[in-house]
Design brief:
Ribosomal Protein L9, domain 1; alpha/beta; about 375 residues; eight-stranded mixed beta sheet; 11 helices; 2 domains; Rossmann fold
């Protein structure tokens, strides 16, 4: 299939419609469009990762064009499993690296749309669209020039997306609540947000946003973890899960001098468009992973404290039961029990926050 045969290519690409921008957006466009020539120009580890990707993603990356790889900046590998046939949206797609990885994983029956406000980055992505279509044997990608705060202007309709991904971009937005509101507008019921980004251990002084390097290196706009939880709750998601987390090494002495008072982590997070509770409640439910996701034959990790060995019955809270049984993962799990009987709080907490003896259990 050629690009001309891909229906997504027939959709009109809206002009770049105004959204909350100002100096921050201008800084981001300048830094990623002109200042950086390649990922080697980054000054810290915030916008890149040394962690080796899973084997199937590494294999997909090997099939992505060199220029796309060189001009891509990201802090993780926000590619969830079970994507075949899915409709995927990549926010802040840049040069398109993750779009082209996702194109291979969704296959010819899926679609992947990348949205970015930086014309120079999109030019790289589009320049190699036909090259990737010929290499993959199918054309299922589309790139749109738009703000991630205004996905309607990009033609993304309500409830039209199975999975939203983003790689170290949400921190760059000057209006994060609007971004998350848009994400949950476009997700289908049971759809998943899966993203990697930089988080801070405190609220950062607003004047730091005037520093183009701190903004461009994904530090000045880093999400404070507790504010992220609050913003997501207001967007309709009461329970987001951390999949992985690692500290960010600032490295550069000048950057350390300016912002070294705060600690930063690179996190991969997943959240679902589901009517979840704000605490982990116990309904006596059990989940069994069938081992049917090709890349995860022996176990499936929902997050950093929920591992499901193949065939092993695992007690789960009501939220986890819904994440596994009311999403695209339902085909890979057997979830037994309902919510007709309540047994109180479920003793569930991340490993780093496991309750002490006698302490009240935390939520997921």
């Amino acid at each position: 299939m050629t690009l001309d045969e891909f229906p997504g290519r027939q959709l009109p690409t809206p002009a770049l419609t105004p959204a909350p921008t100002g100096a921050v957006a201008d800084t981001v466009r300048e830094y990623y469009g002109r200042t950086l020539a390649s990922s080697a120009d980054l000054k810290t580890s915030a916008c890149c990762t040394d962690t080796a990707p899973p084997a199937h993603i590494a294999a997909a990356l090997e099939r992505v064009h060199d220029e796309v790889m060189e001009r891509f900046y990201g802090c993780g590998s926000p590619v969830p499993p079970a994507l075949e046939g899915a409709t995927v949206l990549d926010l802040g797609c840049g040069s398109g690296r993750d779009v082209y990885v996702l194109s291979q994983l969704t296959g010819p029956t899926g679609t992947v749309t990348g949205v970015d406000m930086t014309g120079e980055q999109l030019a790289v992505a589009r320049r190699h669209q036909q090259w990737h279509a010929e290499r993959f044997g199918h054309a299922n990608t589309d790139f749109r020039h738009a703000f991630i705060e205004n996905l309607a202007a990009a033609g993304i309709e309500d409830g039209s997306v199975d999975v939203v991904v983003s790689n170290c971009v949400l921190n760059l937005s000057p209006d994060k609540p609007r971004v998350f509101s848009e994400i949950f507008r476009v997700l289908k019921p049971g759809g998943e947000l899966y993203f990697s980004d930089i988080f801070a251990d405190r609220r950062l002084p607003p004047p730091l946003l005037d520093d183009p390097v701190l903004v461009g290196e994904c530090l000045a706009g880093a999400l404070y973890t507790e504010d992220f939880r609050r913003v997501l709750d207001r967007a309709g998601c009461a329970d987001a899960r951390t999949v992985t987390a690692s500290p960010v090494d600032l490295g550069d002495p000048e950057i350390e001098r300016k912002i070294g008072f705060a600690a930063f982590t690179s996190r991969t997070v997943r959240a679902f468009k589901l009517p979840l509770e704000d605490r982990c409640e116990d309904y006596g439910q059990i989940a069994v992973y069938r081992g049917t996701i090709a890349e995860h034959p022996h176990a499936f990790d929902l997050d950093d404290h929920h591992r499901f060995p193949t065939g092993k019955p695992v007690p789960v809270c009501g939220n986890t039961a819904d994440m596994l049984g009311a999403t695209r993962y339902a085909a890979h799990f057997t979830v037994t029990g309902d919510k007709s009987r309540h047994f109180g709080l479920f003793p569930c907490a991340p490993a780093e926050a496991a309750p002490r003896a006698g302490a009240e259990p935390g939520c997921c």
